[in-house]
Design a protein that fits this description.
Elements lengths: L14 E2 L9 E3 L5 E3 L23 H12 L4 H20 L12 E7 L5 H16 L5 E7 L3 H5 L1
Parallel strand pairs: 4-5
Antiparallel strand pairs: 1-2, 2-3
């Protein structure tokens, strides 16, 4: 699998580190900088010397409050509008691209959510894409990458 992540130290591409003792549980760059996945599955690329606090980003309480607020539907209208506007254009470009082959069972649509928080919009995007592709009878793997500075948000 190819990752679209770069090393925060040297800006080289990160890839799965197959030489580490914990195989496939870390990413490394050609310069040897190594980043381990946490047992919960997230990857922290924030360098300790760049942190202004011991725990940057949202606290667990902030994440829980936002999750509660979002799950009550207050941002559903905004979510639908953004998802429809952003995804329709990108998905249409993907489906019309030279790389998309409708009969190839190994098609993958990759997308990233920067500053994803607890993943509210990431899940909305996934559900929307899954719905559209299913309606068009297109078999395609959806691969999402959520990126956030807050460990409690990523864990959520």
């Amino acid at each position: 699998m190819t990752y679209a992540l770069i090393c925060p130290v040297c800006s080289e591409a990160l890839s799965i580190d197959k030489s580490s003792l914990a195989k496939y549980k870390s990413l490394s760059c050609p310069q040897g900088h190594l980043f381990d996945y946490a047992k919960q599955g997230y990857l922290n690329l924030l360098l300790s010397q760049h942190k202004k606090s011991k725990h940057p980003g949202d606290t667990l309480e902030m994440v829980q409050a936002r999750t509660h607020f979002l799950n009550n539907g207050f941002y559903d209208g905004i979510s639908h509008f953004l998802t429809n506007e952003c995804i329709d254009q990108n998905l249409l470009a993907f489906l019309n691209s030279n790389t998309f082959k409708p009969n190839d069972s190994k098609q993958t649509f990759n997308y990233s959510d920067l500053a994803c928080g607890e993943g509210f919009y990431t899940h909305k995007i996934h559900d929307y894409l899954d719905h559209i592709l299913s309606n068009k009878n297109i078999s395609c793997d959806l691969v999402s990458t959520g990126i956030d500075i807050s460990t409690p948000a990523i864990k959520a």
